[in-house]
Design brief:
The structure is a single chain. With 349 residues, the protein is α/β, with parallel strands linked by helices. 55% of the residues lie in helices and 11% in strands. It has a nine-stranded mixed sheet, with helices on both faces.
Length: 349
């Protein structure tokens, strides 16, 4: 069982005299920066001042400086830029300003575990990984609650790294919910596996295969969309609230019997074998090497895969149907058409 820490275990005063630099102001960056500030910590945001995200950070009341200046000023440097850009950002804007007594923080272990970043041994290296998107982390904190986080220490040069990390977790509100002890290896490998095999890769493939099967059998694409994609949220919400048992309690007996007798025929031992191969590729570093090479080559295959998915019939039908759903936020309807910010000059964070 994992060790779990709460409010009583944290010493927020450990960071009160330190300046915390948040590099990046995306989903996690904006939430962690604002939560830390509202918890009484001194926070600066490291961004190119001309970036749109820098304008937003200033509008949110944050102090914004260039990434290298932020790293120079800060006692704690927390890297919240995409995994594929962190190594270059580190070399250009962070490494020159690391010295004994500084703390290097992350919210995902990829760069440290796969050694795309190798910090000097005389600095603390820690991870605080909230288990929610940034907007939820911020909203729940503002309501006086918190979301759980994972905590890990890769280097403890100061002999206080765990204390500092727990103080940071307190600052973003996670000790209100619970902070689970882990390692960089465990967090990184389990996170990548969950994304690839279940949450993203596995789920999207399952949805598409179900949609395709119904359409090929002559059913209307709109009906197939509702049955294989739209209603996923209803089921996932029930599972989120009370596990598989609550979901099965809430659905019809017919649906539950179909679940218990047919589910394993769709996702069975062959799927488990494929999952084991995916996990092995993660553990060996094969996936990390592939992803790093993809970015070094300009990401052409990645871009082609993205474009192919945009053209799938389920996306075209879905866009039309979501246009009828007045309850959906406007931003959600447009998100598929809005490219992710992916700066070429990595140092701009």
């Amino acid at each position: 069982m994992a060790t779990i820490f709460y409010e009583r275990d944290a010493n927020p005063e450990a960071l009160k005299s330190k300046t915390i630099a948040i590099l990046g102001y995306g989903s996690q960056g904006h939430a962690q920066a604002q939560n830390l500030r509202d918890s009484g910590h001194k926070v600066i945001v490291g961004l190119d001042p001309d970036r749109k995200s820098a304008q937003q950070a200033r509008a949110d009341g944050m102090v914004v400086v260039a990434p290298d200046e932020a790293a120079k000023r800060a006692d704690w440097i927390h890297v919240l830029t995409p995994d594929e850009t962190q190594a270059e950002l580190y070399e250009q804007a962070i490494k020159p300003y690391l010295h004994p007594g500084k703390i290097l923080g992350f919210s995902h272990g990829f760069s440290i575990h796969f050694k795309t970043i190798v910090p000097p041994t005389d600095v603390d290296v820690v991870m605080i990984a909230p288990k929610s998107p940034g907007h939820l982390l911020r909203r729940v904190y503002s309501e006086g609650r918190g979301v759980p986080s994972l905590i890990a220490v890769a280097q403890d040069a100061s002999k206080r790294a765990h204390e500092y990390a727990l103080a940071y977790a307190h600052g973003i509100g996670s000790t209100r919910a619970g902070v689970l002890q882990t390692t960089f290896r465990e967090e990184t490998e389990s996170d990548l596996f969950g994304e690839q095999a279940v949450l993203c890769g596995g789920l999207t493939s399952l949805i598409k295969k179900g949609f395709e099967t119904l359409v090929e059998a002559g059913y209307a694409p709109e009906i197939a969309y509702f049955e294989c994609l739209h209603e996923v949220k209803l089921i996932v919400d029930l599972i989120y609230e009370g596990g598989l048992g609550r979901m099965r309690y809430s659905i019809s007996n017919t649906a539950e019997y179909g679940d218990l007798t047919r589910g394993e025929k769709v996702v069975g031992q062959e799927t488990r074998a494929a999952m084991k191969k995916i996990l092995a590729d993660i553990q060996s570093g094969e996936f990390a090497r592939e992803w790093i090479a993809e970015n070094k080559s300009g990401g052409r295959n990645f871009a082609a895969l993205r474009e192919k998915e945009k053209q799938h019939p389920i996306e075209i039908v879905g866009a039309q149907l979501r246009g009828m759903m007045s309850w959906l936020p406007r931003e959600a309807k447009k998100s598929a058409e809005t490219p992710k910010e992916n700066p070429k000059k990595v140092v701009n964070a």
